[in-house]
Specification:
Elements: H1 3-14, H2 16-20, E1 25-29, E2 33-36, E3 44-54, H3 62-79, H4 81-85, H5 87-92, E4 94-97, E5 103-118, E6 121-126, E7 141-144, E8 147-151
Antiparallel strand pairs: 1-3, 2-3, 3-5, 4-5, 5-6, 7-8
Length: 154
């Protein structure tokens, strides 16, 4: 599964707290499902929860929580757009808990895998999400209360 590593890299790249302490971002996947049909292809989809936790001795401040939510929303727009585009998914597929000094987010993710058999050769390909419409411009800097806190290149 490729999405957890991609999201972790994005959060470390965009959030100063994780740039200086990447070990504070802990990601785990929960029990998932493999969804396939009886079609002639063996293509399938992984469906699983991903939990992102911030390990810290102190309660995360509000700015870290805000930064994480914005960075995750930005990543979801490209890598799991149905969470933002489907009313049912919006209500359940991006959740958080902040009991005391802990902070964790849970995302319900899917990854499509294409399996193609041709001339006695089987090819397995992890498929990307469909591209965004061309008129969507993605930001390269983040400001919090008027102060530049992060910038990056794609």
């Amino acid at each position: 599964m490729q999405k957890p590593l991609q999201l972790k890299q994005r959060l470390i790249e965009q959030i100063p707290f994780f740039q200086s302490a990447p070990e504070k971002l802990v990601m785990t996947t929960g029990a998932g499902n493999v969804v396939a049909t009886s079609a002639s292809s063996l293509s399938f989809e992984y469906r699983y929860p991903l939990t992102l936790s911030v390990s810290s001795d102190n309660a995360p401040d509000e700015s870290l929580t805000d930064q994480m939510v914005v960075a995750i929303l930005d990543w979801l727009r490209i890598n799991q757009p149905e969470i933002l585009g489907n009313a049912a998914h919006r209500l359940t597929d991006f959740a958080f808990v902040q009991p005391g000094a802990a902070l964790s987010f849970t995302l319900q993710l899917t990854e499509r895998v294409q399996v193609a058999d041709e001339n006695v050769v089987r090819t397995i390909t992890h498929l990307p999400e469909p591209p965004l419409p061309e008129n969507v411009a993605l930001p390269r800097q983040v400001y919090l209360n008027g102060e530049l806190i992060s910038s990056w290149t794609e």
